[in-house]
Amino acid sequence: MTTSGTYLEGGGTVDKYELSKKPVGMTISSSGLVEWTPSTQLDIDNSPYTITITLTTASGYVLTQTYYLTVTGSYVCGNVLSIWSGDQRSSTDSSKLLGNVTAYTDNASDNCGPNNNLDCTAENNYQFHVPVASSENLNIGPETSAEDGIMFFYNQYDNTSYTYLFWMFGKGGAAFSNPNYNDVDFDIFIANNESPDDVEVSDETGETSRESQTSSSPYSSTYTGRYHYSSGKSDGAVIGPFSGSSYRIFIDLGGTSTINSNPLSLGNLDSFMYWSKDNSSFALGAVDNFTIGYSTSIECSN
After folding, report:
1. Which among 211, 213, 202 is positioned nearest to 262, based on CA atoms?
2. How far is CA 65 from CA 47, 156, 172, 243, in A?
């Protein structure tokens, strides 16, 4: 709030600011700074709001001003993850922030599996065996692509403290350009995970391997992903669960592996596409390594 006028002339000052009408959670500071972040669906549904600010001057005058506030947009709940370029496992360089994504969630039951009668666990959500053999068959998640690798996070609605990382390349029934086979090779390094993560899904044995893990929480792990798939098919995996508020996932896509000295590459893929629950996405382009870390959680029950 900025103040001026007759009541403040001659050196008069504001003694106190108050919000006499406001949405839940809105505050005003002693200097007149009004702050509020809508954080539930109700904050959108209950809009517009009448906001009345009252100030009292040092000389005893009481003044009011009324505003009307409309909240627009859509509410997207779930775990929010930040993505940075480079290795940000031990410290964070804020200038390297690439963006944020929200984990996909499931608010139903018995809607996965070949007969749509199973809960959408990480494995049932990936469902690599039916209906298109040797390909992913996602129930909840983004559209797959023959040209781009895709990554996203997922957690069951009734298990929101555990988050799983999905990745996949190729698309069942969709051809990609030559060479007919593509090879994707990368390494993954986990730090500060409160859960003992492991390979949840790998649609071909041996392609995704947990190479190491510390014996107690917080867990640190390393993985190798080595994929070879044909045109019209797909490859990929799921690792997790991830829990806590400080876990970091470093993904190394280029150069030489520090685990086994293999070359790392996306092959003929154009990029990794990162997807969010609201179906927004961004491409990592030429970034050859990046870090994902927990940011915050937005309540789903409201």
Report:
1. 211
2. 19, 46, 60, 46
